[in-house]
Amino acid sequence: xxxxxxLLALGLCxxxxxxxxxxxxxxxxxxTGQGHAAESEKGLPLTWSETENIAxxxxxxxxxxxxxxxxxxxxxxxxxxxxxxxxxxxxFDRKSGELLHxxxxxxxxxxxxxxxxxxxxxxxASIEGxxxxxxxxxxxxxxxxxxxxxxxxxxELKFEHGHGPAGSPVLYKDLLLLNCDGTDQQFMVALExxxxxxxxxxxxxxxxxxxxxLVIQVAGKDQVVSPCGEWVxxxxxxxxxxxxxxxxxxxxxxxxRPVFAEGLVFVSSGYNNPVLYAIKPDGEGDVTTTxxxxxxxxxxxxxxxxxxxxxxxxxxxxxxxxxxxxxKTGKELWKTRVPGNYSASFVYAEGxxxxxxxxxxxxxFAPGDKFEKLATNELEGRTLATLSPSDGAIxxxxxxxxxxxxxxx
Length: 409
Description:
disordered N terminus, 4% helix, five-stranded mixed sheet, four-stranded antiparallel sheet, Methylamine Dehydrogenase, Chain H, mainly beta
């Protein structure tokens, strides 16, 4: 009996390990939610172009800015077609680029109003096991299985977007965590992954925002950091109990996802004059005057999420000013300019940092106390989605195509 139990435990352990293999990039900003590929990720291309290191390039129907989510043999995106009245989930074959599933998840009577830099299909899908979770903000949330079958839908999250959906769904144990910050009301909500029913809903005072929350652990306890307009909140993710909040007056339309490193949470205050705040997440109640360790008032991002690598924090402004800071103190270590305007977020993989601008140009540089550019790569089209490295390849979405970028061997 003990031998059988040991074999069962080993089997469960192997199953868990296989579900977390380096090949997977299951959600916005990858397996950690902070833009880091697994340490075992190897063989990624350094250089590419339309004629170099492209394994395949396939057309993507409709429009959307969700980033590729890659698990197993599948790549999932969302898109909107039929003049934005059909919200769809797309599944491509990782090896060939073949479109395997094209599922209409929601059919709208009329097209929603969105910002010129947004689409109705901007939130990135989250994948766990054989389930794919897609979110279109107030337009609807759903779960599918990996064969393309719709398992449940939720249309209860009603609020006025202002500029359209953007924040991506976050998985936590048996819950799906979502920011819902509109022009009329603001709240965070947890849906049951199995059924789509609301488990808890935390209302807050603020203004519209478009950020994705981040689950962190502080002193052995989980909390979910959730930026809203004018405030960033932290909740107990299982219950929705508010733990702490910090205010950035007049900030709104927050887009960057928080980053957690060196014992600090880094959040951007949003429009019109962004400030990057470093906040100690160990407080209670209103920590505005007690827990802000430092702030960056010039060169903070409106859209791209920061990246922490070791003790350094990398930040790029929408206009292309790239800063490297000491994460603990906020001291500027170096600053340079990279070409173009930026909306996508950083990716760190195989000891390199990748950041692409809005016109298909990706700058690759080495982390460190001086700027060392490794490559500049250019593809066609408009590019606001974030890169997804996975199993020796990089998946890149433009406004018209999905690419598999891979080193030719």
